[in-house]
């Protein structure tokens, strides 16, 4: 059958890729490509400006030192007058970084993409942090999978799927909508747990995304895309991302061969209507897996630049 089938818009969810969805994806990519470079450029200029300010202030302090320190006694007196300003600046910086320090200490984040979607496994400028325990991996995935926003997200996707009559085996009406909703919720939850908790716990990989935060737009984009194939181990080394690739494949197989529409059938026996093919084929499973990896790749790019975009939005407010 010559139809485009089993492409995804959300984690583990299957839906036909209609022109409207393709347009939305293109708009998202366009928006990121327009806003992210300027945000990245601004973030790259901040360290340079701070370094310039420090170098500009250094000669002034150096010029004042000979006038104020003709003797060792005056030197000590001059030095004791500076900690007040330094203490204030340190207090302010500690206040600004307190939330980030808490996130690093806890090993997870409280951030949300677009101020709505859970982004708990992304750390900004974290550096070397302790690995997550098995319990922490399962808890943070459960916190994101059962977040209240998911109810709205799966509900919206189920409604669009029913309007498009994708996976016709579910039927229409309240029963068809309920089946689609259950399938979307199950797909998302299963995929999240396999990629973020089960596989990382079995093979000791770190499911978190560590934002690069510095560099050019192309360099950061390349880094984000590479994280689909390369991840950290619990010991801090780089390793092939079996959790993503294999975990998504297992979740796709479970989705395709378990609770999705049954084998092929005629919707109305005895009536000359097209035969509805079975969704339970290895081609569909491979399509789900490829779509999921592609969706996760785009998500990682959004995660890389979202902190810059968020800071710019808050600054404009």
Question: Would you give an account of this structure?
Answer:
By secondary structure, the chain is mainly α. The chain has a domain at 107-260 and 275-317. The chain contains nine helices and six strands; from the N terminus they run αααβββαααβαββαα. The strands form three sheets. The chain has a two-stranded antiparallel sheet. A two-stranded parallel ribbon has the order 3-4. A two-stranded antiparallel ribbon has the order 5-6. Strand 5 (230-232) and strand 6 (238-240) form a beta hairpin. The protein starts with 18 loop residues before the first helix and ends with a helix.
Tag the structure with descriptive keywords.
mainly alpha, 317 residues, disordered N terminus, two-stranded parallel sheet, globular, 6 strands, two-stranded antiparallel sheet
């Amino acid at each position: 059958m010559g139809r485009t089938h089993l492409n995804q818009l959300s984690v583990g969810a299957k839906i036909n890729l209609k022109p409207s969805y393709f347009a939305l994806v293109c708009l998202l990519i366009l928006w990121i490509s327009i806003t992210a470079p300027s945000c990245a450029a601004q973030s790259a200029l901040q360290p340079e400006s701070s370094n310039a300010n420090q170098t500009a202030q250094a000669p002034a302090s150096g010029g004042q030192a000979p006038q104020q320190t003709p003797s060792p006694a005056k030197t000590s007196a001059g030095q004791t007058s500076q900690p007040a300003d330094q203490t204030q600046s340190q207090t302010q910086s500690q206040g600004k970084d307190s939330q980030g320090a808490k996130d690093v200490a806890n090993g997870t984040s409280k951030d949300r993409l677009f101020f709505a979607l859970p982004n708990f496994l992304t750390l900004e400028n974290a550096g070397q942090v302790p690995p997550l325990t098995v319990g922490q991996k399962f808890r943070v995935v459960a916190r994101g999978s059962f977040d209240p926003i998911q109810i709205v997200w799966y509900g919206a996707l189920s409604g669009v799927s029913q309007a498009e009559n994708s996976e016709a085996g579910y039927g229409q009406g309240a029963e068809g909508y309920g089946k689609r909703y259950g399938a979307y919720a199950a797909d998302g939850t299963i995929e999240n747990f396999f990629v973020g908790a089960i596989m990382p716990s079995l093979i000791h990989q770190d499911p978190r995304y560590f934002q690069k935060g510095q560099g050019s737009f192309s360099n950061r984009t390349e880094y984000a895309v590479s994280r689909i194939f390369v991840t950290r181990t619990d010991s801090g080394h780089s390793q092939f991302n079996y959790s993503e690739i294999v975990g998504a494949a297992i979740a796709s197989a479970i989705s395709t061969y378990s609770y999705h529409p049954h084998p092929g059938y005629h919707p109305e026996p005895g009536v000359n209507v097209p035969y509805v093919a079975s969704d339970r084929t290895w081609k569909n499973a491979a399509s789900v897996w490829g779509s999921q990896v592609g969706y996760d790749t785009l998500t990682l790019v959004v995660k890389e630049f979202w902190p810059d975009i968020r800071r710019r939005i808050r600054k404009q407010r």
